[in-house]
Amino acid sequence: MVRSIISILLFCVVVHGVQAAQNNIEGIRIWPSSENTRVVFDMKSAPDFTYFTLKNPLRVVVDLQNTNDNLNLSNIDNSGNLIKKVRYSKAKDSRSARVVIELSRQAKPSLFAVAPSDNLGHRLVVDLADSAPSQNTSLQASVNNVVMDDKSSPRDTNIIVAIDAGHGGRDPGSIGPAGTYEKHITLSIAKMLEDMIDAEPGMKAIMTRGSDSYISPNRRPEIAREKKADLLISIHADAFSQPEPRGGSVWVLSMRRADTELGRWLEKSERHAELLGGAAEVINDKSSERYLTETILGLSMDHSMATSHDLGNKVVDELKKVTSMHKRRPQAASLAVLTAPDIPSILVEVGFISNPQEEKNLNWSAHRERLANAIFNATKRYFKQVPPDGTLWAFEKANNRTHKVRSGESLSLLAQRYNVKVSSIKAANDLSGDIVRVGQVLTIPRT
Ligand SMILES: [Zn+2]
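Above: inputs. Below: predicted complex with zinc ion.
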């Protein structure tokens, strides 16, 4: 079974306590070039390795048998832009190391071991054939290429956000002291959020319910998956037996429930292809299907949980600008609507409908609008930082330059220097005024 973070920690303690693995990664060097990026693992002895690739995000996963994972990967010199990051992930057993090379775009890997020569020792070479789109193709053509290359699962160039209005139909949710139904409040906020997302180029909203109808909690993440959502946001309003509690909170799936869900998905082998998308082909080629499915599902769940936490923190940041908060960090819970291993999912409690003042606020459309806007801003901030591969935002990000503002520089000066309009810089950075501060990092669009 896939382990939780807690058992991974225990796992590491056990490994180091029992027996040192034989091989060692002594260093990792990256040589970027325009067509081919080379990653060299300097090894103590000949590497015994296997590898596979994954999408969303794109990465090459290298398993090294009987190898320590002592090397600190955070100081690797990486001046190119193909490799986003080199990190460890949970290895398949206590004596192995798993190294994940995260890519910013598609690249075809080839791996081979090199015997010692001259003063160099054993090496494992990972060559990545770069598929960077050439600079002179038009934006849309390039985006199409990125998407069309991935024939197994062509994706929408929009980032798809599934919005889930809590309760509905025969399930009213909580009922406030003045008789307000949670299901109406959640649907109203969901619709406001839908409008904001649909008005944003590069984003698209889908609703698990668009009217006052009943949908079971288990069905909701399935709808998100059918619509190929990149994210699921479920909207609720809290209630308590006493009138005092107030404020919003954000919830993500607990590790314990995540483990249970992974086990459940592993048993449902007929649904693996649906869940794994393009990665299912990798599995069909291998004999150890069960192990690979577990690995890929585990990585997918890791990614979803990490994303949910990151986004959850951003939603808390934005919500506290417009309402009081009941919890100032994302909270973990076992909730059916959050159980999709492949779709990052958060649940937002917008306030306590059982608190008379908050019930009043929730009945005020300007307040609901502010809540929807806070969730929207957080989502936008999150995806601007880490746009899913193949989306318009990912393409724009790959093609943008950044500039750190120095003393004496203004927007008009930068616009002149980079030969772009002031208005394009403002749009690319979501700036409302003309003021920039020293040290601020600005995105400079290419056109
Ligand atoms: Zn609820």
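Residues 1-20, 133-153 have pLDDT under 50 and may be disordered.
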